[in-house]
Please model this.
Amino acid sequence: MAYKRNIMITGGAGFIGSHVVRLFVKKYPQYHIINLDKLTYAGNLANLKDIEDAPNYTFVRADICDFDFVSKLIAEQNIDGIIHLAAESHVDRSIKDPFTFARTNVLGTLSLLQAARLQWEPKGYEGKLFYHISTDEVYGALELTHPEGMKPEFSAHEVYGDKFFTEDTAYNPHSPYSASKASSDHFVRAFHDTYGMPTVVTNCSNNYGPYQFPEKLIPLFINNIRHRKPLPVYGKGENVRDWLYVEDHARAIDVIFHEGRVAETYNIGGFNEWKNIDLIKVLIATVDRILGRPAGADEDLITYVTDRAGHDLRYAIDSRKLSRDLGWKPSLQFEEGIEKTVRWYLANQEWLDNVTSGDYQKYYDAMYGNR
Ligand code: NAD
Ligand code: DAU
Model:
């Protein structure tokens, strides 16, 4: 069958990527969706079980840094859209091993950009798009000017400062992770400005929901509460993050891929700020209630530990441009999203056990080769 579009999604076996792949495969049977993923520790094909046999879906195991392979794939599959999520994504790992972050996030993005350019440029860029998924962490950190919280008219939830990241905020990354993402964002914009490649960049706040690797706060803590293990709270737990349900991010990516303006940047966030310690108490209360434990029974698991080096104090995204220009809004209230998320992890202990033991990766080399 001739497909209307051939779209390559990188990092589609990871947390956010799997939700984007699922949305596109189901919503657009007229598109061929090619999921290119290296299957690092963070890539898990179990995240895509429900769509793996869909006729418009193809999985390819490859490293985005493999320029020759990626160039050939873009040519052979006649790729006209790239939604680029593949990355090393965990801040704590970047502190221990910054080189891997520079390799994948910077050189890997450059490899994809150059491969796409050399395939697309000779025939003209009409109908092509390179969509780069980035993070709010590139903007640096904001102050807690209102530590007790305040409620501006545009936010359904309390905010902890009077400044927000907008699309015009200057880049000021602090961790090796955010420095590598900032660098990749600059390369994407440079390919637009220098070669005329149609690009778009989005910077999103913290995502939560099913299929997130349990090294990140929310799945790690849900699993630890369930098993009554200590909850390692960095510093005083005062840091603020702006949380968005992952399916709302995937919906935003869909809208921007189809209707976003070329060369634009869009910030994506939920106006949903939480101090870590308050969020952790909500997680404890929710797990305890669902498991039928007495209210607050597990608060003694909270264990304050040494702070993360260079720990950014507050992230807060102003996503009004995206709402105004493209009509996107988060669909879920946080309470509803957290309830769904906690229930999902409690119901999917096998998935958690597989990723924590590493079993999910056992057969990948035999099945897909070790690229
Ligand atoms: P993740 O770590 O869960 O998944 C990353 C995926 O990329 C994995 O499937 C992994 O196998 C793949 N990958 C890694 N290196 C690769 C390589 N060299 N070649 C091919 N594939 C490779 O990450 P995530 O949390 O889903 O984040 C996805 C993207 O969204 C990242 O670019 C991240 O910077 C960005 N982002 C994440 C968040 C968040 O809260 N998680 C928020 C904003 C932006
Ligand atoms: O803001 C978007 C970013 O959100 C993404 O770009 C990153 O890929 C994603 O990992 C996430 O980064 P954070 O560092 O904010 O997420 P993490 O879940 O690691 O931590 C959330 C907060 O909780 C942060 O302030 C650190 C704190 N924390 C985290 C862990 C894992 C703890 O206190 N204890 C922990 O054990």
Summary: The chain has a mean pLDDT of 96. The pocket of DAU (ligand 2) is lined by residues 89-91, 135-137, 205-206, 216-217, 220, 232-234, 239, 241, 276, 308, 315 (CB under 6 Å). The radius of gyration is 20 Å. The chain has one domain: 5-208+244-269+312-334+360-368.
